[in-house]
Amino acid sequence: MDVLIHHIIGKYNYWLYTILMMIGLYAMIAKNNLIKKLVGMNIFQTAIILFYVSIACKKGATIPIIEEHGGSVAGHAIRVADYINPLPHVLMLTAIVVSVSTFGVALALAVKIYQKYKTLEEDEILMRLRDK
Amino acid sequence: MKKIGLIIVCLSGALLLYATQDFPRWGDPNSPASTHVSPRYIQKSLEETDVPNLVTSILADYRGYDTMFETTVIFAAGLSCFILLRAFKKKEDDLYYRHISTGITLHIKGDKTIPASSKEFERIDTMWTPYDLIIKTVCRFLVPFIQIFALYVLAHGHESPGGGFQGGVIFGASFIVIAIAFDLRTALIRFKEKMDGLLSALGVFIYAGLGALCLLLGGNFLNYKELATILPMDPVEARAYGILGVEIGVFIAVMAVMLSIYVNIVSEGRHDEGL
Amino acid sequence: MTHNFPVLIVTVPLLSAFIISGLSWVKKSLCFPVALLALGTSVFCAIGLLFRVLDLGVVEYHMGGWMPPWGIAYRVDLLNGLMLVIVSLVALTNLVATHRTVVADFPEKHGTFYTLYVLFVTGLMGISVTGDVFNLYVLLEITSLTAYALIALGQPDRAPLASLNYVFIGTIGACFYLLGIGYLYIMTGSLNMADIASLLPPIYHSKAVLVAFIFCMVGVCTKMAFFPLHVWLPNAYTYAPDAATSVIAPLMTKVMVYVMIRLVFSVFLPDFSFHVLHISHAFVWLACLAIVMGSLLALSQKNIKTMLTYIIVSEIGYMVGGFWLGNRLGMSGAILHILNDAIMTLCLFLAVGNISYKIRELDFVHLKGLFRKMPITMAAFVAGGLSAIGVPPTCGFFSKWYLISGAIQAGQYGFMLALLFSSLVNVVLFFRIIEIAYFEPMEPHNDTTGLKGSIIEAPLTMLVPLLIVAVSLVVVGIYSGDIVTTLIAPILPKGIG
Q1: Burial of residue B137 (number of CB atoms within 10 Å: 0-12, 13-18, 19+)
Q2: Neighbouring C-beta atoms of residue B173, cutoff 10 Å
Q3: What interhelical angle do C207-223 and C159-188 show, nearest 10?
Q4: pLDDT for the residue numbered C497
Q5: Which chains touch A (3 or more CB pairs under 8 A)?
Q6: Domain count within chain B
Q7: Could you count the other beta carbons within 10 Å of the beta carbon of residue B252?
Q8: Rounded Cα gap, residues C464 and C477, in angstroms
Q9: What is the Cα gyration radius of chain A?
Q10: How far is Cα of residue C265 from the mean position of the Cα atoms in its chain?
């Protein structure tokens, strides 16, 4: 019971995002339709982004924008525990852009494949390639 | 394939969850991630860079080198969609135009053509969409406000959530709204393909060029305090303005690339008609 | 200016890529000269940096003036220097040699092709020089994205599907690497390689670090086409345009081998990888499997380009197995083999590119009698083949020698047998081609030029770089001993036997 509370409920965010990642990974590997694979890729990358962002959390802290309490801020010492960790957010801005770019290129490739074969099911395309 | 997928997924998931036993508790303020590198960002960012938004200051200053490559990634994606899909077509022989006020249809063969920006004739083709008053009027009202909001998000990225990427996407979305509400040709008249290509390269060039400028002025790459030698301000303020400069570069690049990816994918490279 | 070499190597091609992209809209004829100038500057800076590192030991460069781990820092040692020289030289040679092919294949879009080419090389050089794990991920994604686009420009019926398969598998690899460094970040709180290495020893026995190691290695192995994660490689490299294959094939997988070496040497120190985890035997056995399967699959191919891609799979097995042997000879052999394999693959693919430029078809049937038509190209191909087999004095012999000695010293006789088996299979593969090209007369209906019996060699801009590469196979082979003692031996950490 102690183990359950400490390991699962205390870290339920990691469990949730890992399950989401695995759903995306399964879709990428097992699905036949190219667009469904793309959707799986997007789910996988989004789950990784959420995973990183959840690392940044601190109990009772606010967003990482330094608040000014009327006048200059230099007078007050900034308490680290008041603001969440900004670094994972920065890393994930990069990861979101990378994920969007990969998705754009993959969609362009899917359009090219569709122009040639008029279908997006992978087994049909492979069958047509084998017949050639 | 499904069985292999299931095995791989269960194995990876089990490994990932097995490792979480050693993680610190969620939200723990004493975890290594919260106590090693980030306290300095939180405490010193305002006095070192004069930017209260910590995410912007880390993104564009402390780890600005990463952001430059991130902008290059989105630029490369725009280029890839262009090079893969773009099919430059010869001008067709048959063009159909409709005179708006009288409703007479013209069929033009051969080389002569009515310029695309003409107000009296509109081009109708097989994929012509009917005229929808409400959507077009609302779009015409909204787009300037969307663009001003995008510029606000860019400029206010120092104090509130925002910055170059967010503002650029909103600005690009305003052109996509025009492309959807009117038709693709109208959006392309407003924002030509050549201008799009040049702007996307210009945006990232501004970012890398600002870094190279700091290099030429004697410091390290992307060390904005060197800008204080040419701008009339002290090094800390120069950092804030350096951050603004690179965010503007990112804004221009992202805006141009968003539209370019949309146009190329939706029209399959032909640039004639979209959704 | 010399202390800026680490950053100039990456930023000069980056800036020139944007200039080339702008020029492709305005004045296309200037694109190639700008690319040539940019890669030439990179070669100059890379060689200058290597000499600087030989003098100073380690060169550090802090981006934005911030100290690591708060900013991104470059920490250039001999391994980085060597990789940078290899990448920039191969890229420049290939740029010059394939100019004609590019202009012929992509008449309207060759400006954009050169932009993607220069961005690809920038990404590779950035991976080879960085000292920050997340910066490596971003550069890996630039490299991959431009590679996907370059590969998909090949034959219109097969290349987009091959590239899309590469997209899926490559993204899984990169995301696994990202997960691995995420786990490291949770446990240590840092993203700088040297910093993580100093923070890891107290937590070596934690489960999270083990899983981080597994995921980073699986991600990197996916990207380097280590059997059985190699399924994307043959199709992607066969159906890509020739100009793209001859730059992606020699470089992409070798730079990933470098990433694996860098992760083991500088992040998870060798102490952890070899002594705390007892997986080096497993890696060596997997490498034996990769070598054997790569060779067997190469035997069954009818297309010369596909055969060469399976040889690449087998060569990756040499490097990974040699590295995980765990002794100085094996690791020196692996790092020397990175250099040798890059030159060898470049030579073979440039020769195949020449053949394809003139003959257009690459099945074995169409290669009959080619020695009479294209003697210089086939001579260079034979030189590359001899290096793959491991005949002295070509460079392939010396790296195989180090690998076999390392295997004997470590007692891994299975690895030694796999190396010898692979050499024998390479003999069969290359002599089969030499026999078809040399001894069989040219079929009349395959003679596309109509001039029977005369030499239709490729143009000079394609021949001269090929000859330079073929000659350098022998030169690098002769100087192997010097290369190992001055460049490679200081890279290996002190604790390795």
Answers
A1: exposed
A2: 18
A3: 160
A4: 62
A5: B, C
A6: 1
A7: 24
A8: 20
A9: 22
A10: 19
Using CB atoms and an 8 Å cut-off, which of residues 50-89 of chain A contact chain B? 54-59, 61, 63-68, 73-74, 77-78, 80-81, 83, 85-89
With beta carbons under 8 A apart, name residues in chain B contacting C206: 22
CB atoms within 10 A of CB B136: 14
Coil/strand/helix, residue C441: coil
Q: What is the mean pLDDT of chain B?
A: 87
Q: Which helix (H) or strand (E) holds C8?
A: helix C5-26
Please tell me the distance from the alpha carbon of residue C329 to that of residue C480, in angstroms, as a whole number: 13
In the DSSP assignment, the letter for residue B89 is P
B62 chain-C contacts, CB cut-off 8 A: 64, 66, 70-71
Using a CB–CB cutoff of 8 Å, tell me whether B211 touches chain C.
Answer: yes
Q: Which domains does chain A have, with CATH numbers?
A: 2-131 (1.10.287.3510)
Per-residue confidence band for C182, with pLDDT thresholds at 50, 70 and 90: very high
How far apart CA C83 and CA C62 sit, in angstroms, is 20
List pLDDT tens digits, range B75-120: 999 999 999 998 887 766 677 777 877 778 878 777 777 776 677 7
Q: With pLDDT > 70 as the criterion, what percentage of chain C qualifies? A: 97
Q: Which of B22, B204, B215 sits opposite C18 (nearest CB)?
A: B204
List CB contacts (< 8 A) between C66 and chain B. Answer: 61-62
* Range B189-194 contact pairs with CB under 8 angstroms and sequence separation of 24 or more: B189/B116, B189/B117, B191/B259, B193/B260, B193/B263, B193/B271, B194/C25
A34 vs chain C: nearest CA distance in angstroms?
9
Paired with C130 in beta bridges are C74
Tokens (6 digits) for C263:
């992760």
Tens of pLDDT along C111-149? 999 999 999 999 999 999 999 999 999 999 999 999 999
CB pairs under 8 A between B and C: 169
Reading across the β-sheet that carries B121-123, which strands appear in turn? B105-109, B94-99, B121-123
Q: Give me the torsion for CA of C322, C324, C327, C330, rounded to 10°.
A: 10
A20 at C interface, C-beta within 8 A: no
- Strand partners for A33: A121
For residue A28, list chain C residues with Cβ-Cβ distance below 8 A: 168, 172
B122 in a domain, yes or no? Answer: no
Pick from C54, C42, C119: which is nearest to C85 by CA?
C42
Domain that holds residue B60: 49-91+129-266
Q: What is the mean pLDDT of residues A6-28?
A: 90
Distance of alpha carbon C26 from alpha carbon C9, whole angstroms: 27
Q: In the block, which residue shows the tokens 């002769």?
A: C478
Angle between helices C304-324 and C280-299 (to 10 degrees): 160
ipTM above 0.90 for this complex: yes
